[in-house]
Amino acid sequence: MDTQIYQHAEPFILESGKKLKGLEIGYHTYGTLNTHRDNVVWVCHALTANADVFDWWKGLFGENDLFNPDEHFIVCANILGSPYGTDNPLTINNETSEPYYLSFPKFTIRDIVQAHQLLADKLGINQINILIGGSLGGQQALEWSILEPSRIKNLVLIATNAKHSPWGIAFNESQRLAITSDRTFYANSPDGGAKGLKAARSFALLSYRNYKTYAVTQQEEEDNNSDGFRASSYQGYQGEKLVKRFNAYSYWYLTKAMDSHNVGRNRKGVEKALSAITAKTLVIGIKSDLLFPIEEQQYLFQHIPKAAFAEVDSFYGHDGFLIETETLTNIITSFFKADVKGKIIDLQQSA
């Protein structure tokens, strides 16, 4: 499916006060908006994903999955700064006729959401039946539910938090240090910082998985090796994969945006901001998640008024939100079948 493009006619004003002229947003839709316009499922994607949710969240989104185009009108929009259809550092700056590179204005999670609010307006979507996201996608979904409580009916937050932690910021800064140590990052070329990006991805993988994941999937089959380990080649392979489909500039900016996430900013604190959410909310945490520890999801559950909480016991750590689609299907189905708000329930057992 080809990416659709929405071009915003007016200047887009960022939280910093800086402006983007002629903002373009890439997005995908699946299914048909019904006559009551109440069957919208809006997906907020994570750091290096794209608007084609049927490609990267298979098992949860697809023709025969829980969220399918026969029942739902599914929307997924590419986020600001990402190179898959929306304005980003490699976009041509009309004032210079060259890509922005490091002159692209810094932006926040709140800016990403406000861009998607414009797209929702353009599509005539006054109510989102289900807003769902994991990781950075969950940060967006949470922010949107606070910015526009009346627009969001149901909210599903997976492996995310109310504000990005010092631990998460430290991981992101380590990745940016890797990128900026590659001197080509400052060369203003589309492949600038590629080696640094490869190293950054290696850091990121350590936060997405965990000790047990590597112990099983990258274990040596015999005891005589002294070099050329599977874990080493895996890190390099995954770094190369990202370099082929992403760019160092977008990655640098998007990690900065993730660091900016704090729903309490200019709202008299985090708890005050969370109390403004009116959506029926399902918060899902992953017990083995190193990057977004389950305490962060428990905090959301405790401070969002109409919330339920479920946890996933996954072997895959943070990446479990992309992989454990059968378990997520059971949990989400149970949530919508039962009146479980305000409870900690083993939802997957009640499916």
TrEMBL record:
Membrane-spanning residues: none
UniProt name for this protein: Homoserine O-acetyltransferase
PANTHER family noted in UniProt: HOMOSERINE O-ACETYLTRANSFERASE (PTHR32268:SF11)
Pathway(s) the chain acts in: Amino-acid biosynthesis; L-methionine biosynthesis via de novo pathway; O-acetyl-L-homoserine from L-homoserine: step 1/1
EC identifiers of the protein: 2.3.1.31
Coiled-coil zones: none
Function of the molecule: Transfers an acetyl group from acetyl-CoA to L-homoserine, forming acetyl-L-homoserine.
Residues where substrate binds: 201, 319
Subcellular location: Cytoplasm
Classification via Gene3D superfamilies: alpha/beta hydrolase (3.40.50.1820)
Signal sequence, start to end: none
Family, as annotated: Belongs to the AB hydrolase superfamily. MetX family.
MF (Gene Ontology): homoserine O-acetyltransferase activity
UniProt-listed InterPro entries: AB_hydrolase_1, AB_hydrolase_fold, HAT_MetX-like
Gene Ontology biological process terms in this record: homoserine metabolic process; methionine biosynthetic process
Organism of this sequence: Mucilaginibacter ginkgonis
Alphabetical UniProt keywords: Acyltransferase, Amino-acid biosynthesis, Cytoplasm, Methionine biosynthesis, Transferase
Subunit and interaction comment: Homodimer.
Domain of life: Bacteria
Domain AB hydrolase-1 residue range list: 40-323
Reactions accelerated catalytically: L-homoserine + acetyl-CoA = O-acetyl-L-homoserine + CoA
Active site: 135 (nucleophile), 289, 318
Recorded GO CC terms: cytoplasm
